[in-house]
Amino acid sequence: MGKQEDRTQSVHLTIRVMSIVGLWPWSPAAKDELPFLVFIKENYRYLLHLPFSFAFIGLMWLEAFVSTNLEQAGQVLYMSITEVALIVKIVNIWHHSSTAWQLMHQLKNAPEYELRSQEEIKSWQGQQRNFKWFFYLYGLASLCVVYSGCIGVLFLEEYVLPFAYFVPFQWQNEQGYWYAYGYSVAGMTLTCISNVTLDTIGCYFMFHISLLYQLLGMRLRSLRNVDNELEFEHQLRMIFKLHHRIRRLTLECQTVVSPYVLSQIILSAFILCFSGYRLQHVEIRANPGQFVSMLQFVSVMILQIFLPCYYGNQITFHANQLNNEVYNTNWLQCTPHIRRLLNIYMEHLKRPVIIRAGYFFDVGLPIFVKTINNAYSFFAILLNASK
Q1: Is the whole-model pTM more than 0.85?
Q2: Across-strand partners of 233?
Q3: Phi, psi (degrees; rounded to nearest 5) at 277
């Protein structure tokens, strides 16, 4: 390709946004840089997220604890449980920041993953473009959830916060309301952007590795056009080496995404459960903005669960497809020596390639279906308990 960085073109904006909101490592400080700037670079993420993310989420949970009944608690629990998953994602990316940076650096610059043919370039660029625009729409839909709720409450006669949290001062008056409202908007905007970008980067790592497995399949398929035995064996051994490196990348990817996917799977059933309970108690005529916001929230939450399951499933699917691609190599015309190499490779391919979530779940579409079923079961229990 013309430029190495084109291999990761779909997440350039995401990484820039993550740097701005303190979720991606900044460039190392120069020796002659001012001490104040060095301090800001090292502690910027804490200065931003402690007052606006962690404190805001803590106040949400405090509001849930001081609620007098289940209906009042349900108004805040659906969002506060979502934010617990966000805390896990933030702490995880901070803890694995160097691993994530090195993984992205390899995907972006390592020469062994360079694309060779026009067919590979065209396929790669098309799928990268689709990923980019899909996650732009996902981010836009998530922000619409926040701002439809924030705008909707402005048309109500009484003072209502767009997203409930414990306010340590009297806010149900003209002056105090705008302070409480402004903090709610700022906190939700930051947590929404953090959630979207962390979802995007986690899914991107899995998406990129699934593309590498597709690349292996294309190169195996292209061997049918190689007539020279020595050239065939050379390219086959190059494929073996590339496959070994991709398996290693898969393990590195699992290290980065496993905790966040695990938290998402465990908490999502409860999030959808309380979201449905909250949706049932929102009056459409009295608060149409809040109702629309809740509908959007449930839709985005289902998508948020589905996406890592889908991209994890893509890795397993395309890795399993390599077994079929071996049969497209014109192996019947190969010498006994090369056939033995292909047999050994096919035995190696019998080892399943699976992204695991914290060594508890296989990340794939079956766990998505199970999570939705669990959410429905919890929702039915909650409805019976509230009667």
Answers
A1: yes
A2: none
A3: -65, -40
